[in-house]
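Data availability (excerpt). The following record was deposited with the supplementary files.
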Amino acid sequence: MTRSKLRFHSEESRHMVGIQRVTFALLLVLAAFVPLTAVPPVAKNALRIYFVDVEGGQATLFVTPANESLLIDTGWPGNEGRDSGRILAAAKDAGITKIDYVAITHFHTDHVGGVPQLAAKIPIGTFIDHGDNRESTDSATVQGWNAYQQLLGGGKYKRISVKPGDTLPVRGIRAVVVSSDGALIDHALPGAGLENAGCKDAQQYPADQTENARSLGTVITFGKLRILDLGDLTSDKEMGLVCPQNKLGKIDIYIVSHHGWNQSGSPALLNVIAPRVAIMDNGEKKGGSPSTWDIIEKSPSLENLWQLHFSEEGGPAHNVPKEFIANVEGPDAGNYIKLTAWPEGKFEVLNSRTHQTKQYPAK
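Predicted structure:
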């Protein structure tokens, strides 16, 4: 082969190498942009639930695959807007700029108190509640109710008052009302209705006279998953949902009623709904009663109980291991718990304090 031909092949080889390098560099550039432009898998078909730390109140944010949002309760008033700020941070993490629906379970100040501060920070579409306040003798409750009424009176927001059997108008999930204003569903939900053997020797509970017994409770279905939120519904009302027959059926994720206080969460309820996972929105100094903690832990299908806070009342014997607690002993950090669920029944739970996630396969 002549030198000219050798030179030609050498130049051709260098040219091909150059093209390969440019092509590889372009692929790297394109790869770098994929995460920025592609829709993450979670946003396509997953339900995201944020259990916001409002220090022993409730604020649970649902963001559906249809990108509609439902916030159940708004935490406390005051505290320099602490609770509304934490809800806003969860909304930002979820990528939403408005809250489509805010459901107020009842009118105690740790549930409705944060409404005015939240409404000042983020657009809200519709409020959902059980009707009028029924506890007129408690000044804090009356104050929270009046502030809520004042906000609604401005005409800016829609309001829906619901009754048992109604379905919340949230796209992407099916949320059926099972309790509202002291009334309960009078029929079993689809797939439920079996006799509850635990009712025979169940404890009898005195009738609660506060707003707790009026709590708006829902069973939320997302694909194969079923989630229960009863607000602060008390044990006397729980009995009407599960005795003599279980009207609720089996539950995958139980949002622990009443912050884990012993006025709610009866054995007759926990043993028959048999949740896989329970998430307790307690505070350090509110909720997590040892007797209720024991009932949850002994529930027959429970895989894990998660807590928003270490419970001072529970002490060493009645708190879960630290990896399942968002806020351990010490200064208030405001860490949240996030649950991501898929229609086929699998889900995962993230502890924002540890940044660790536990996965639960579909069953």
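Summary of structural features: The CA atoms of residues 284 and 331 lie 11 Å apart.
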